[in-house]
Amino acid sequence: MELDIKICGLKSEEAVAAALEGGASHVGFIFFDRSPRHVTVETARRLRRAAVGRALAVAVTVDADDETLSRIVGEMQPDMLQLHGQESPERAAALRARFALPVMKALAVREKKDLEAVAAYRGVCDRLLLDAKPPPGAVLPGGNGIPFDWRLLAFLDDDVDYMLSGGLNAANIAAALRACRPRGIDVSSGVERAPGDKDPQMIRAFFHAVRGVAGARPEETA
Ligand SMILES: O=C(O)c1ccccc1N[C@@H]1O[C@H](COP(=O)(O)O)[C@@H](O)[C@H]1O
């Protein structure tokens, strides 16, 4: 099974191009105005065009209301919704039905008991995104560049479809992929030179590092 790779928090054509050239399966656009990665619907709509037929465009929202989501879906036309707030399983299911789009629900992980939430969203969402729990007082629910203990994921059933995220970068991705077996990985601040400022060279280095794990997981990185 091939490993999906999502580059998230894209704000420029240059960064989108680096993600697509590297072979990203997903490109993510953040709709959260307190994030340094926030984009307007117009910008996301323009940037996502380059990904058509090459990668899935993901709209990342945080407890967004129906009106906001309708505008994002109508104008940007994402291929997937990422719910990165406190959306309940019922809310996730309702949005999936209403917009007829696959939904990826982000769950915050710091300790083993945080994985109990997985059961409630399995079968409701198309995929989970297992991200690090934000530190106390953090403004952002994601994009904090903090990893969690990947070994916790050994407690999950093998058939849980999840993307791993939280503090991934070119230096640690090999260790992450040896510690657990995600079907996808998601990186944002780990490929930035400053908050919200993606570095094409760091994006290339990330892909290079992922492909360097080919010996360990040939069937997933070929
Ligand atoms: O990146 C953000 O600013 C952000 C804001 C609001 C919700 C989610 C956000 N980012 C998501 O968090 C993961 C992990 O980020 P990082 O690699 O630890 O920086 C990121 O890939 C986004 O999906």
From TrEMBL:
Pathway where it operates: Amino-acid biosynthesis; L-tryptophan biosynthesis; L-tryptophan from chorismate: step 3/5
Keyword set includes Amino-acid biosynthesis: yes
SUPFAM superfamilies listed in its UniProt record: Ribulose-phoshate binding barrel
EC nos: 5.3.1.24
Top enzyme class: isomerase
Reaction equations catalysed: N-(5-phospho-beta-D-ribosyl)anthranilate = 1-(2-carboxyphenylamino)-1-deoxy-D-ribulose 5-phosphate
CDD domains per UniProt: PRAI
NCBIfam families hit by this protein: PRK01222.1-1 (NF002295)
Protein name in the entry: N-(5'-phosphoribosyl)anthranilate isomerase
Organism: Chelativorans intermedius
